[in-house]
C-alpha cells in the first residue's frame, strides 16, 4: 500500500494540493483523474520526490528511497534511446535482461503486440511511431516486473488492439504489482480498476466501491462528483 498523509503542494502563493490523504491499495489498479490543472501530474511528481512538498508518503511503510528500485514510471512520452534498436533498449532498461541476442523466443511472448514484432524490435527506435514507442516503454515496464507501476496518460497514442492487450496485461500484472494510472480515458479504465480517485479544487475524493456507483461508469461518477462540489 502507498499511504499519502497531509500532502500539500504550492507554487509560490498558488496552492495546487491541500492536505491530501490517500491510500493506494496493494496489488490493485487505482485510477486518478481530474480536470486539467487539478494537480494529477503534480501529485505524481510529489510521489516520486521530483517536487518538494509538505506531508508524508510511504510505500509499504517505507520512504521512497527504500523502494526506489521497485518503482517504474511510464510517462506520456517515455524517454528511450532513439539511436538504439528496440532490443538494445530492452537490454539496457530491463534490470534482469538476459543476453537476448535478437532471439525473440527469450522474451515473454505475451508482452508482444502486433506492432512490436521481432523485425520491428531490430530497428532503431527513432523510426518508431508514437504508439510503437509507447508500446516499447510498456514492454520494458512489464519485463521489469516492478512492485509499484505508475502510468501517466499511458493510453494516449495506442490503437484499439493495443489498448485491449494492455488492459489484459495490466489486470494480470496487478496480481503482484501496485498500479497507479493517471489520465482522462474513462471508458478504457472503467472495466479494470479497483479504486477511483478524483482531484478537484486542491482536494481529493476516494471512491473504493465505484463499481457500485452509477454502474461503475467513471464518466458519470466524475460528472456527479463535480456537480456536488
Topology of helices and strands:
Layout: E1 2-11, E2 14-24, E3 29-34, H1 40-47, E4 54-59, H2 64-67, E5 71-74, H3 86-93, H4 118-121, H5 130-144, E6 148-152, H6 160-173, E7 178-182, H7 186-189, E8 195-200, E9 203-207, H8 218-228
Parallel strand pairs: 3-7, 3-8, 5-6, 6-7
Antiparallel strand pairs: 1-2, 1-4, 8-9
Low-confidence stretches: none
Helical proportion?
A: 25-40%
Number of strands: 9
Distance linking N and C termini: 28 Å
CATH superfamily: P-loop containing nucleotide triphosphate hydrolases
Class derived from helix and strand content: alpha/beta
CATH topology: Rossmann fold
Q: Could you tell me the radius of gyration in angstroms? A: 18 Å
The main sheet orders its strands as: 5-6-7-3-8-9
Element order: H for helix, E for strand: EEEHEHEHHHEHEHEEH
CATH architect. name: 3-Layer(aba) Sandwich
The best one-word shape is globular
What is the residue-averaged pLDDT?
A: 83
Characterize the main sheet: 6 strands, mixed
CATH class: Alpha Beta
Number of helices: 8
InterPro entries: AAA+_ATPase (IPR003593), ABC_transporter-like_ATP-bd (IPR003439), ABC_Transporter_VariousFunc (IPR051782), P-loop_NTPase (IPR027417)
GO molecular function: ATP binding; ATP hydrolysis activity
Organism: Paenibacillus woosongensis
Protein name: ABC transporter ATP-binding protein
Report on this structure.
This protein has 229 residues and is an alpha/beta fold. The strands form 2 sheets. The protein has a 6-stranded mixed sheet with strand order 5-6-7-3-8-9, sandwiched between helices. A 3-stranded antiparallel sheet has the order 2-1-4, with helices on one face. The mean pLDDT is 83. Strand 6 (148-152), helix 6 (160-173) and strand 7 (178-182) form a beta-alpha-beta unit. 30% of the residues lie in helices and 25% in strands. It has helices at residues 40-47, 64-67, 86-93, 118-121, 130-144, 160-173, 186-189, 218-228, and strands at residues 2-11, 14-24, 29-34, 54-59, 71-74, 148-152, 178-182, 195-200, 203-207. The protein contains 8 helices and 9 strands. It has a single domain (2-228), classed as P-loop containing nucleotide triphosphate hydrolases (Rossmann fold).
Amino acid at each position: 500500500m502507498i499511504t499519502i498523509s497531509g500532502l500539500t503542494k504550492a507554487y509560490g502563493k498558488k496552492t495546487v494540493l491541500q492536505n491530501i490523504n490517500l491510500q493506494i491499495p496493494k496489488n490493485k489498479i487505482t485510477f486518478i483523474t481530474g480536470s486539467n490543472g487539478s494537480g494529477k501530474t503534480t501529485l505524481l511528481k510529489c510521489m516520486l520526490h521530483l517536487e518538494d512538498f509538505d506531508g508524508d508518503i510511504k510505500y509499504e511503510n517505507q520512504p521512497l528511497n527504500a523502494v526506489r528500485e521497485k518503482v517504474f514510471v511510464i510517462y506520456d512520452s517515455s524517454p528511450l534511446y532513439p539511436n538504439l534498436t528496440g532490443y538494445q533498449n530492452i537490454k539496457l532498461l530491463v534490470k534482469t535482461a538476459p543476453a537476448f541476442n535478437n532471439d525473440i523466443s527469450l522474451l515473454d511472448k505475451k508482452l508482444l503486440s502486433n506492432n512490436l514484432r521481432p523485425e520491428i524490435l531490430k530497428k532503431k527506435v527513432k523510426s518508431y511511431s508514437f504508439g510503437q514507442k509507447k508500446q516499447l516503454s510498456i514492454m520494458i515496464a512489464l519485463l521489469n516486473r516492478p512492485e509499484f507501476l505508475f502510468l501517466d496518460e499511458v493510453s494516449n497514442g495506442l490503437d484499439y488492439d493495443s489498448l485491449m492487450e494492455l488492459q489484459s496485461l495490466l489486470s494480470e500484472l496487478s496480481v503482484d504489482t501496485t498500479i497507479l494510472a493517471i489520465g482522462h480515458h474513462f471508458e478504457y479504465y472503467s472495466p479494470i480498476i479497483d479504486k477511483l480517485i478524483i482531484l478537484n479544487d486542491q482536494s481529493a475524493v476516494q471512491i473504493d466501491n465505484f463499481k457500485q456507483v452509477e454502474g461503475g461508469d467513471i464518466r458519470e461518477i466524475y460528472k456527479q462528483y463535480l456537480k456536488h462540489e
